[in-house]
Design brief:
- The protein has 433 residues and is mainly beta.
- The protein has a single domain (2-432), classed as Porin, CATH 2.40.160.10.
- 10% of the residues lie in helices and 51% in strands.
- It is built from 3 helices and 21 strands.
- It has helices at residues 2-15, 384-393, 399-418; strands spanning 20-32, 42-56, 59-70, 85-96, 100-107, 140-148, 152-159, 182-189, 197-205, 211-222, 227-232, 235-240, 242-254, 257-268, 277-288, 296-308, 325-334, 342-350, 355-366, 370-380, 421-432.
- The strands form 2 sheets. The protein has an 18-stranded antiparallel barrel. A 3-stranded mixed β-sheet has the order 8-12-11, with no helix packed on it.
- A hairpin with a 7-residue loop joins strand 15 (277-288) and strand 16.
- Helix 2 (384-393) runs antiparallel to helix 3 (399-418).
- The longest helix has 20 residues, at 399-418.
- The protein is globular and about 60 Å long.
């Protein structure tokens, strides 16, 4: 695969001389100080992104290919993580009209304004064969029409499929099920899998003393929140259901202070186990920019609240909602130098389950073509969660609920208890042709 990627980059430079071709390669290493039995204590992954863009007058074409190769996959079957693959993330045509545009194809969209987690970034599912702390979205097929106003953009987007999500094999530390449980990647949908999901959005900015950027989104279609059901005694599958969802994300600048808001409310149409729910997150970032060396120090505060509104239905534990009642306090320090050196870190405190996660991330450039990223995680596990799970397990409604509870306990403890210390080192190589 590595040879193939190198050949693709070289061939692109020759065959697409009139195109703009760019890409980057990441060499990523992770070390897990604690992990479950029979799981690898480290991972080494080579990742590569290749982008090709062509534009002529009002028509443009864009494509993006992502590939990764995991070191343990080439050793033996016992350590094989199943994390070596290539995928097409984006391939779309865009045509610009006088005051509007049309885009058709496979693409990735980003919605959100917060630092720690973007709860309204629901358009693309995330890659489950990679680090679950990372954002690695899968492209989806869709068509959109956007109309530009003087202060914003009105869009209608139709997503025409829900992709399957593969998981890594059990030896990878982020495989969330017990070793004896198999995951079926075929997505189970409440209606036809290719039933369109429709999004209406309006985003804009105000021309006032205090700059406000805002966005409102309405969705009718398959929800990004999923749940698992049993297909065999030791096999589980993801389930998707229809919702009417109302979302917004906003930023307001007042001097050196940035106020942030993300919020959503979902009305569940056809899932007996899932309640209507809301998710709200607010944030404040205040920057001090008067240091003599030109550096900037900013303080970050964010709070997340997830709520369900019906009894006897799945709660945050069964639905893998980790940011259900969490406060994040952190800082951002940027040197504002030629190497774009920046550090972001802080503590996430789970107010409901009394759990703390400490993390830090450093990004800097090494010359013109290299970028270095260093991450550190330390997790102080919850003691309340185990007690609540044991109490709940005493009166299960059925065998499936009992097993789902165990799976959630496994996932949450795996990510927030077993992974006590995590180091991530990533070196990125950029290249343009």
């Amino acid at each position: 695969m590595i040879r193939l990627l190198v050949l693709l980059l070289g061939a692109s430079a020759c065959l697409f001389a009139d195109f703009e071709v760019s890409g980057h390669a990441d060499l990523e290493s992770q070390v897990y100080k604690t992990q479950q039995d029979n799981k690898n204590s480290n991972s080494f992954t080579l990742k590569q992104v290749l982008e090709v863009e062509y534009a002529k007058e009002d028509l443009s074409l864009f494509s993006k290919v992502y590939a990764q190769a995991a070191y343990h996959d080439f050793l033996n079957d016992v350590e094989d993580t199943g994390r070596t693959f290539a995928r097409l993330d984006e391939l779309y045509l865009k045509y610009e009209l006088e005051d509007s545009s049309i885009k058709i194809g496979k693409s990735i969209r980003f919605w959100g304004s917060l630092e720690l987690e973007n709860i309204v970034d629901v358009f693309n599912p995330n890659e489950l064969q990679d680090d679950l702390f990372a954002t690695n979205p899968l492209g989806v097929w869709n068509a959109s029409y956007s109309y530009y106003t003087d202060s914003g953009e009105l869009s209608i987007v139709v997503k025409v499929n829900e992709p399957n999500q593969k998981m890594a094999n059990y030896p990878y530390v982020y495989y969330v099920f017990p070793q004896a449980v198999l995951y079926d990647e075929t997505l189970k949908t409440s209606k036809n899998k290719n039933q369109p999901s429709v999004y209406l959005s309006y985003n804009g900015t105000t021309d006032a003393e205090y700059a406000l950027d805002f966005a409102f989104i309405y969705e009718h279609g398959y929800d990004s929140q999923r749940y698992f059901s049993q297909t065999a005694p030791t096999s589980y599958v993801q389930n998707a259901y229809i919702v009417d969802k109302f979302m917004t994300y906003n930023t307001l600048v007042i001097g050196n202070t940035l106020l942030k808001l993300e919020a959503l409310y979902a009305i569940v149409d056809d899932a007996e186990l899932i309640s209507d729910y809301s998710h709200i997150a607010v944030g404040v970032e205040h920057a001090f920019a008067d240091f003599e060396d030109g550096s900037t120090l900013g303080f970050l505060y964010e709070y997340y609240k997830y709520t369900t509104y019906e009894d006897n239905k799945y709660t945050d534990l069964e639905l893998f909602q980790s940011m259900q009642d969490d406060l994040f306090v952190g800082l951002r320090y940027a040197l504002n130098n030629a190497d774009a050196t920046e550090f972001v870190g802080g503590i996430v405190h789970d107010l409901e389950y009394d759990e703390q996660t400490y993390y830090g991330e450093l990004n800097t450039r090494l010359g013109e073509s290299l970028k270095l990223t260093l991450d550190y995680y330390y997790i102080e596990p919850s003691k309340k969660r185990a007690n609540s799970l044991r109490t709940f397990r005493k009166t299960p409604k059925n065998g499936f609920e009992y097993c789902v509870l165990l799976l959630n306990q496994h996932k949450l403890t795996l990510l927030k208890r077993q992974l006590i210390v995590l180091y991530v080192n990533k070196i990125t190589y950029f290249r343009n042709y």
